[in-house]
Design a protein that fits this description.
CATH topology: Four Helix Bundle (Hemerythrin (Met), subunit A)
Number of domains: 1
Number of strands: 2
Shape: globular
Order of helices and strands: HHHHEHHEHHHH
Strand content: under 5%
Strand order of the largest sheet: 1-2
CATH architecture: Up-down Bundle
Radius of gyration: 24 Å
């Protein structure tokens, strides 16, 4: 009885992953043919709930101590379906289809870049080169799908119908940006190192109040758009700040630099430099 219970525990996190696949497939069925705006909104909601199940399957596996290689591979395949193919079809039917080949290619690029990002992560994981768990490399595919979902839901709640001609070009550029961010090496925080403290609670309260303020000033449907946009901008912003930190000091005057170079006491020991391997910079660690 105890052995059967243990086997059932291994099934539990996989049920969350399969639920994510089901919702992604359901979203694609809603987008098939000539969907009505209501169906596209339902498809966006299905992908949103797929993100919820994807966020908890790994946590359930860690809580029940049922992590496995099978679960890792199943999760990657589920992500390709629910957060690659389904959002790509959704954005194509909602906004990009009238653009012809350009719209088709951008929708395909979204799905392809999401698959490439997942493949890169799996290869690094198999090599044991996960690096710091504090960062993702590239925009995570569930959050890229969440950005698409946020746009569709916000548009449906405020305007209704599908995207009009005045916004198609901007949406196409946004989809291209999402595809690029997924395959880029820009680092995004995982927030796995955040612990319960006064500072973290204050930050959480600030984010909640900011969302409430946005909802009251505009519409509640825009809150998700603002959260997604803020996370997307966080990676490039921290990358630009890191470029500034790499050269924190202004160049020395030529006379001072010449005096320092002539001082033998300040010259490094060549033998020690050759014997000691270079330190690994945290900026070069990726997962």
């Amino acid at each position: 009885m105890q052995i059967n219970l243990r086997k059932a525990m291994f099934v539990l996190p996989n049920l969350f992953t399969v639920s994510s696949i089901f919702l992604g497939f359901y979203a694609m069925t809603l987008c098939a043919g000539d969907p009505a705006p209501e169906q596209l909104n339902q498809a966006a909601l299905a992908i949103f709930f797929a993100i919820f199940f994807d966020a908890f399957d790994g946590r359930v596996a860690r809580m029940t101590k049922t992590q496995s290689d099978f679960g890792v591979q199943l999760d990657s395949l589920a992500d390709v379906i629910s957060f690659g193919a389904a959002p790509a079809l959704l954005i194509y039917k909602w906004a990009l289809a009238p653009l012809g080949f350009v719209g088709f290619f951008l929708s395909f690029a979204f799905a392809a870049c999401g698959a490439l990002r997942l493949a890169r992560f799996n290869v690094l994981a198999q090599r044991g080169d996960k690096g710091s768990s504090r960062f993702f490399v590239g925009l995570p595919i569930p959050l890229a799908a969440g950005a698409v979902v946020a746009l569709v839901i916000a548009h449906y709640r405020t305007v209704g119908g599908i995207a009009d001609d005045s916004t198609r070009v901007a949406i196409a550029a946004f989809v291209g940006l999402l595809a690029f961010l997924m395959v880029s090496t820009i680092r995004y925080r995982t927030f796995k190192d955040v612990h319960l403290s006064g500072r973290s609670l204050a930050l959480f309260a600030f984010l909640v109040m900011a969302g409430v303020a946005v909802g009251m000033a505009t519409r509640p449907a825009f809150v998700l758009v603002v959260y997604m946009a803020a996370y997307m901008a966080m990676g490039p912003a921290e990358w630009l700040l890191s470029l500034g930190r790499r050269h924190p000091h202004a160049p020395l005057p030529p006379q001072v630099a010449a005096e320092l170079a002539a001082d033998e006491a300040l010259e490094p020991d060549d033998e020690e430099e050759e014997a000691e391997p270079p330190a690994k910079n945290e900026e070069d660690i990726y997962i």
